[in-house]
Amino acid sequence: MVAAPADAKVRWKIKGAGFGHGVGMSQYGAYGYAQHGAGYQAILTHYYTGTSIGSAGAKTVRVLLRPNLSSVVFSSASAACGVALTESKSYSATRFGSQVVLHNGGQDVNCGAAMSANSADGIVTLKGKGSYRGAIVARAASGFGLNAINEVPLDDYVRGVVARESPSSWPLEALKAQAVAARTFALSTSVHGNGFDLYDDTRSQVYAGIAAETSRTNSATAQTSNQAVLYAGKPITAYFFSTSGGMTENVENSFVGSKPVPYLKGVADPYDDTSPYHRWKLVLSQGRMQAALSRYLKGGKLRKIKVTQRGVSPRIVYATVISSAGKTRVSGPSLKAALGLRDTWAFFKKLKG
């Protein structure tokens, strides 16, 4: 009988905490604070050090809904490109060179660089996505076809975000905190797309228009209307994430290579223990670890993972992956991505036999 390779008996136990990047407001932590009687302003100023809550100012945001379409098909619109439309009918727009052409019942209308479709009740439906407040805009994409973009007042945008980022059943003060954080994030960030500022997914924050709205999250948005988190009088980059594990992290330790930011500092987070990801553990085989970390092993066999720097929480900033062929320095986020961990708050133990 041939003996099993020694590596077949090796397992790696990974004990961790948290879920997400660890920077800014912990959503489960906000939930816990609200359950303990904290108001949304206290929640926000706890997570964002040295900030205050103030007026955001009126703004329209532009959100990419569908990219590179050969045809943008929409309905419920009463006007586009200066032409009256019938709301019960569907219309389409296509690209001709750098121009956008509206097809209106056999009549083509050149809209110029962009087509904007609006309705009397302020809601337009985009085929393949759903109904949105504001306008549906078709604009030439950087590649082929058209980008379908929602131009929407900021508070209406937030209405389409809150329930996709926090459960609508959560305490109202937690939902208010989410609404203000989402509004502030939209004000302070831009992806600088071709005619749009934000994505409708986790590259920015999740936005689903009318379909996402609930009475409770709309109430949270209305009760915090036009409010943002400010530092030195300006809206902050209001990062948020699911679960802190008990402490958030400095931005430079989580987004490794970024500069320190005074309002994105690690703070104690005592009430996020209701999250299913407050503590977690994994047990992985040597083979799975070897495959996941192959790019760092220099062709050798995985021997050890040595954490060389942790943040103000136990999150990994840098570690050294040690193999039979040498050593490789790896950032915490890279290690997290390679192993599919929920967070960089992780401890490794190699088990034999």
Give the arrangement of secondary structure elements.
Blueprint: E1 11-16, E2 25-26, H1 27-35, H2 40-47, E3 52-55, E4 60-69, E5 72-75, E6 79-80, E7 83-84, E8 90-96, E9 99-104, E10 107-112, E11 114-118, E12 123-126, E13 130-133, E14 135-140, E15 146-153, H3 154-159, H4 162-165, H5 172-188, E16 198-199, H6 215-223, E17 227-231, E18 234-235, E19 240-241, H7 251-254, E20 280-285, H8 286-292, E21 302-310, E22 316-323, E23 326-331, H9 332-339, E24 346-351
Parallel strand pairs: 2-19, 4-16
Antiparallel strand pairs: 1-20, 1-24, 3-17, 4-15, 5-8, 5-12, 6-7, 6-11, 8-9, 9-10, 11-14, 12-13, 14-15, 17-18, 21-22, 22-23
Radius of gyration: 24 Å
By helix and strand content, what is the structural category?
alpha+beta
Counted up, domains total: 3
- Work out the oligomeric state of the chains in this entry: single chain
Could you give a short account of the major beta sheet? 7 strands, mixed
- Helix coverage percent of residues? 10-25%
Treating each run of at least 4 consecutive H or I residues as one helix, how many helices?
9
Give the CA-based shape.
Answer: globular
* Strand runs, count: 24
Distance between the termini: 19 Å
- How are the strands of the biggest sheet laid out side by side? 7-6-11-14-15-4-16
Q: Roughly what is the average pLDDT, rounded to an integer?
A: 95
β-strand percent reads 25-35%
